[in-house]
Design goal:
Length: about 150
């Protein structure tokens, strides 16, 4: 019974690069959906809408790190479509600036992973301390490289 989910997961992993080459916008959107879901859990936790749980906090941090380490790979030249995406043309006009934002995102998530340790941040305050820089990185990138709705 366990072999079927493993096989499906392996197929999805192997098929992802081919899908990404055909539709990088969809991959970017999926990654941002994941990032947004993690941010929603983080925000709910910090606002006491979700009880603090170190395992959940660690999962949020790991989701952010996964996105940070893959997101930048899905912006090939010409992959802009205002009807489908909020990616600003500035991404391709200011590649160095966009890369700097991606690097800040990677650095903040790497620091969060390290600080979280094996079991996740010890308490809500520790989680907020590592989540803040990640969320700030998201904010500054969106302000510069995302079009408004």
């Amino acid at each position: 019974m366990r072999k079927l989910p493993i096989a499906i997961g392996l197929f999805a992993l192997l098929a992802a690069p081919a899908f990404a080459a055909d539709d990088p916008i969809s991959v970017r959107q999926s990654l941002m959906d994941s990032n947004g879901g993690a941010a929603a859990v983080a925000g709910g936790t910090m606002k006491d809408q979700i009880p603090y749980n170190p395992t959940v906090a660690k999962s949020v941090i790991l989701a952010w790190a996964a996105v940070a380490n893959s997101y930048g790979s899905f912006f090939p030249e010409g992959s802009i479509d205002p009807a489908r995406s909020h990616a600003s043309p500035k991404i391709w006009e200011d590649v160095a600036g966009f890369q700097a934002e991606l690097d800040k995102f990677k650095a903040s998530t790497a620091a969060a992973v390290k600080a979280a340790g094996k079991d996740g941040p010890a308490d809500k305050a520790a989680f907020a301390a590592v989540a803040g820089p990640v969320l700030e990185s998201c904010k500054t990138c969106h302000e510069s490289y995302r079009t408004k709705d």
